[in-house]
Design brief:
Layout: H1 16-29, E1 49-50, E2 52-64, E3 72-85, E4 89-92, E5 95-102, E6 106-115, E7 135-149, E8 152-167, E9 170-178, E10 181-190, E11 193-206, H2 208-215, E12 234-247, E13 251-261, E14 277-291, E15 295-298, E16 304-305
Antiparallel strand pairs: 1-15, 2-3, 2-14, 3-4, 4-5, 5-6, 6-7, 7-8, 8-9, 8-10, 9-11, 10-11, 11-12, 12-13, 13-14, 15-16
Amino acid sequence: MIIPVMPTWLLPRSGCCGRAIGTLIVLLLSPVLNAEPQQASDPASEEGEPLWQLGLGAGAVRVPYYPGASESDNFAFPVVFPVYRGEFLKADEDGVRGELFANRRWQLQVSLDFNFSIDSDEVDVREGMPDLPATLQIGPLLKYHAYQSDDLNLWLQLPIRAVVGGEDLDIDYEGYQINPRLVLEKPLASAWGRWRWTHHLGPVYGSEKYHRFYFGVAPQFATIDRPTYEASSGYGGVRYQMSLTKLDEKHLFSVFLRYDDVSAASFRDSPLVTEDHTFAVGFVYSYFVLNSKARVVRGKAGRNER
């Protein structure tokens, strides 16, 4: 699943592989060497944002096991939230990514996402089928800054991600997913500081291997109520995501909503798809206990400036 604002690799779920991968990435990205406890700072005397921060907090989500599933998982979790604003590597409320190229209009990044493992015993229509391991998605993200003003940013984005998953060291390629989307960002001022209101809307496409991973039914797992199904590549539905986020030197707070419509997806006839419309909701809060002394200034397009 793809959860906006709240990077999915921060969220634990059932399955040792999912927890292990998430924990490993958090530890690798936590820039805590030579750190000092956070102290209140005077914005007028310090320019820019900390190069890195480390936050601790908690969150809760309700998410379907996959788009088209009737069952959802509800869980609360602790959060270790590292922020890093490097020239190439970036980790923040938008997830983990590496910036390969950027100018006033165009950005090319390497982006990451993380999908949770699925316990088939928790999904009625998957009873008797193998559990699905956690997966890591990685690939290029092309962004075009179509419109910019003081109170509105409009982006066209094209992420193309390969999907790999497995247990322990047995890692397999599981296809790819493409999600071209329109992204609207609007800053909001309030008595509680500056917020960012973000909307994502676009179709989702997947390879045959990717759709087979989630929606295929092999002959050995077919039953009277669950016939054999061979998934094909193509349209995977439409996805809308909305988030409201506040990130400063002391706090991160974010709430999100995600909606998937798979009524016309190429895999809609799979016996594993029982709902045309699914929703995910959640929130996360983190208090930054460490801030770096080094600072960076981000331009309007999100690039670091010296």
